[in-house]
Every structure is written in structure tokens, then in C-alpha cells.
Amino acid sequence: xxxxxxxxxxxxxxxxxxxxxxxxxxxxxxxxxxxxxxxxxxxxxxxxxxxxxxxxxxxxxxxxxxxxxxxxxxxxxxxxxxxxxxxxxxxxxxxxxxxxxxxxxxxxxxxxxxxxxxxxxxxxxxxxxxxxxxxxxxxxxxxxxxxxxxxxxxxxxxxxxxxxxxxxxxxxxxxxxxxxxxxxxxxxxxxxxxxxxxxxxxxxxxxxxxxxxxxxxxxxxxxxxxxxxxxxxxxxxxxxxxxxxxxxxxxxxxxxxxxxxxxxxxxxxxxxxxxxxxxxxxxxxxxxxxxx
Length: 292
What we know:
Shape: globular
Low-confidence stretches: none
Distance between the termini: 31 Å
Radius of gyration: 22 Å
Number of helices: 12
Largest sheet: 5 strands, mixed
Mean pLDDT: 95
Order of helices and strands: HHHHEEHHEEHHHHHEH
């Protein structure tokens, strides 16, 4: 992972955003934690966290309901009862932009820039998904068109939202030209600010809605995609929305709603940046001045 800066920069970014708390730590663990983990520690974790009370089993495809339920009950009969440990709520504490640079010999700079948003269950999540598509989720997005196609400042650029039970972020990741790194950062921030100063057009929003609907329908044609859609809703939301109900919510999102959302989340005290690039490519002071 550390030898793949395109991937590793995401881990660095999470450290910047959340610091020394669970969400700020690498999922795979530290080197010391991996080395010192033994069977007894793994077994202790398994028995304390994997319990009947927090188990969701989803099945999609052709099966006999009575037979499969009996097999499931038998297979998981030995799971312990009782509630698992409660996860540690995230601590949101930020008053100004934060940045971190990891020096590494790379041919281009690898950047992850983002803003704190809100928990998974927030009613603004549908507007955020649409804003993200317009911003940088595909090859007709603003970031791809402006930063890559028009200016040639990067090889790839992409945005995506991350949603957790008690927090979230909207992240932009890019591989940037080392020589024009400051210009690229300025250009990305400019495209972000445009969402606050001007409303997206009705045509842009309609295109984003059609893209999101089409991608969702295609994903649900596969049994794996279908059970992910249903299971994650049941596990994390406690309810399952029908596809037509979700589409109805998307249809109601308007350009003013997108602009208002942008004004709420695209603020300096929500902004974080992680950067992997060679030494002397750009200083931390220069990055912080750009973020202000």
C-alpha cells in the first residue's frame, strides 16, 4: 500500500481529517500491531464483536426460503448472544484548513483534498451525491473537463463522498503535474468555489440525475450488487428504501438546494489536504497559504 501513492494518499488524508482516533487509523493496522497480533487476540475480537444481535444476512438469487433459513440458523447457532461493544463516536474538532505532505520520490504529486460533510443518514445525502457527480465523478464532470482536458494539469482526477454512521467527507483525488502543482491546487479549489457563487444549471443537474439512476439500475442487475444495496441499508440505516422512492427523492433536488449545500460544506474550517510528492516540490507553508 505504501508503495502505491495513489492508494496510500487516502490513508494519509484520513489521518489529517480525524487524527488519532479510530477513523484516522489505517484499516490494515500499524506494522507493530500486525506483528504483535496473535490467535488469542483475533479470537477475542471475534467473540466480542460478532454476535447474533448485530448480524445481518442477506441473500439474493434463486433459493428456497424455508431451506435456506434452516441452514442459516444451524450455521450461526454458536454465535454468542448479547450486545457487541459500542463504537467510539468520532470527535469533530477543526477551526482552520489542515494539510500534511509525505515526501516520496514520485513522478507526479498525489493529492487527496476534501471537506467534512455529515453522517450517512442525513437527508442532504442525495443532494451531495448529485453535487459529487457534477463535480468529479465521471469524464464529463467539471473537474475532469477543466483540470485535465482543458488545462492538462493532471492525469486523473476524481471525487467521491464517504459516509459513516456519525460523520462523512467529500473527497477529491488527483495525480498532478509536479511542476504546476500550486496552479493545479488553485484550479481545483476554484472549481469547488464555483458551486457556492453560481447555481448549477438545470441541464447539468438533470444529466447528473440520469447518470446516478442509470448507474444504480446497472449495479442492481447483478445479484452481488443487489444484496449490497439491500444489506447495507438494513445494516446501517435500519430500513430499506425502494428504488422508486430513492429516485423520487433525487428528482426533487433543485439547483438552489445544490448551491445551499455547497455553501454549507465548502468552508475553510472543513477543508483538509494530504499530498505525496518529492521533497522541495512544494512547501507546507505554500500549501496552507493556498488553502486559505
